[in-house]
Write a structure and sequence with these properties.
The protein is of the alpha/beta class. 35% of the residues lie in helices and 33% in strands.
């Protein structure tokens, strides 16, 4: 009986956490460029979920459905920058984001007061000729302070949200230069030439 109780106690140590980042992203204050683009977000992007089991004694499993909030910030940003984001055959550019990697750390791992998250996005932009005119890696980082009123899931969700805001700012800077964006529409350059 003591051995069974010990096994039950060990089994009870494993925890399940789900951190859902908030999907509220206010439209960025940007000049709307008179241009029609396609924002192409595939199912892998829309439904992206990062799941990871920690290797410490507690063996906690974290699930982070990042796709829906990523769709929201991309739609908000691109919709603020261009007059139309579903231009079909009339689109001057196609913008295609993907999520390449997600990493995170907990206060118990780092000995700090912060939940931290890193999201590696990549945004590919092609012109009407189908040529890649920009291949933009976006390394996004966010953190949230641990506190008495903040649970682990809420803390991590906020860190993910901050990382997405970081990615929003980085992409906004890339899209801010009108001459660069118009240059992409005329360019036949290979990937990486922007």
């Amino acid at each position: 009986m003591p051995a069974v109780a010990a096994l039950l106690m060990l089994g009870g140590c494993a925890s399940q956490y789900t951190a859902v980042p908030p999907s509220a992203f206010p439209p960025p204050l940007m000049e709307a460029l008179q241009m029609t683009v396609n924002l192409e977000m595939d199912e892998a992007f829309r439904n992206y979920t990062h799941t990871e089991t920690m290797t410490d004694l507690r063996a906690a499993t974290w699930t982070m459905p990042i796709g829906p909030a990523s769709v929201d910030w991309m739609t908000s940003l691109v919709g603020s920058r261009f007059t139309s984001i579903d231009g079909g055959n009339k689109a001057a550019l196609q913008i295609t984001p993907e999520i390449e990697r997600v990493e995170f750390s907990l206060p118990t791992q780092t000995g700090t007061d912060f939940y931290e998250a890193w999201i590696q996005y990549r945004v590919r932009i092609t012109n009407v000729g189908g040529k890649t005119v920009a291949d933009l890696p976006l390394a996004a980082y966010g953190k949230s302070r641990e506190g008495l009123m903040v649970g682990a899931e809420t803390g991590m969700a906020d860190a993910l949200n901050q990382a997405m805001r970081d990615a929003t700012a980085a992409l906004a800077i890339e899209l801010k230069d009108n001459s660069k964006v118009f240059g992409w529409t005329r360019s036949g350059a290979a990937a990486g030439d922007s």
